[in-house]
Amino acid sequence: MSDDEIILVCARIEGEPYLPDNLTGRCAECERMVQYRPHAPRPHRLCCLECAIELARDSNSTVEITTTKKMVEDARAYFRKKLQ
Ligand SMILES: [Zn+2]
């Protein structure tokens, strides 16, 4: 892992992606299929939410969990749509 690489926290895919233009990849930790937004910063290492929680729990870890404003907005839009 290079110094410039960030860990991108992704939702696992169970069925359809949340948004039609989501890209898919595999979690670097558990190798499950995950989805992420096409505008996510690069370079990145994909990590599902479940593994990210485990990484963050590890007190020896220097891992920084990254998200972006745009990703948060997309998530908000998704949940708003779901609640309608
Ligand atoms: Zn994982």
Describe the structure.
This protein has helices at residues 49-57, 69-83, and strands spanning 6-12, 23-26, 33-36, 44-48, 65-66. The protein has 84 residues and is α/β, with parallel strands linked by helices. Strands 1, 2, 3, 4 and 5 form a 5-stranded mixed beta sheet that branches. The termini are far apart. Zinc ion is lined by residues 27, 29-30, 32, 47-48, 50-51.
List keywords for this structure.
binds zinc ion, single chain, globular, 84 residues, alpha/beta, 2 helices
Element layout with pairings:
Layout: E1 6-12, E2 23-26, E3 33-36, E4 44-48, H1 49-57, E5 65-66, H2 69-83
Parallel strand pairs: 1-4, 1-5
Antiparallel strand pairs: 1-3, 2-3
The structure holds zinc ion.
Q: Which class best fits the helix and strand makeup?
A: alpha/beta
The small-molecule ligands in this entry are: zinc ion
- What does the largest sheet look like? 5 strands, mixed
H and E order: EEEEHEH
Summed up, the helix count is: 2
Mean pLDDT: 82
- Helix amount: 25-40%
> What would you call the shape?
globular
Radius of gyration: 13 Å
Beta-strand residue fraction: 25-35%
Number of strands: 5
User: Spans with pLDDT under 50 lasting ≥5 residues?
Assistant: none
What gap, in angstroms, lies between the N and C termini? 41 Å
Q: Short summary of the structure?
A:
With 84 residues, the protein is α/β, with parallel strands linked by helices.
